[in-house]
Please model this.
Amino acid sequence: YTLSLHDALPIYDIDGFMNDWLNRPGYPLVSVDWMPGASEAKLSQRRFLSDPAAKAGHDKPWQVPLAATLETSEQLLTKAAQTVKVTPAGDQPLLLAHDGTSYCLPLYQNPKHLAQIVEALKAGKVDTIDRLLLIDSYNLLQRGGESSTTDMLELLSAYEKEDAESVWGDGAPD
Model:
């Protein structure tokens, strides 16, 4: 017995999903505007290209699985901008693309949210894959002109006691 991709993932428009991912350059940058503890987050998406001088072209929304660390009212971001309900869980930060189960570049816009992420990193409350993805994402965001050097330095300060070679190997300068 074989299960088709359509049957396995019934909430997705598989044809549109695959067409976007296979035929469009770049990938989605998802801006996250969330205040820690709030019950809603404002998400927006646009195409990311790592060359800041490149023109992104049309910005037709992607179908982006959120794969959040906190429970959200939506599992898929399909619009250019969307507000989702979030179920806060103590001091756990809202991270997207959790455990690498989605492919998007999250940009955490609220300074208090980024500070919460930094504190969770320092306290050892972020798993290895998410620590790796945070460094990788902010490295790309900075190269693409989307994130400030101070945001990157603030994030890196939380890795002072990092002991996972896979995380440091990725965060090392090229």
Observations:
- Residues 50 and 144 are 4 Å apart (CA to CA).
- The chain has a mean pLDDT of 86.
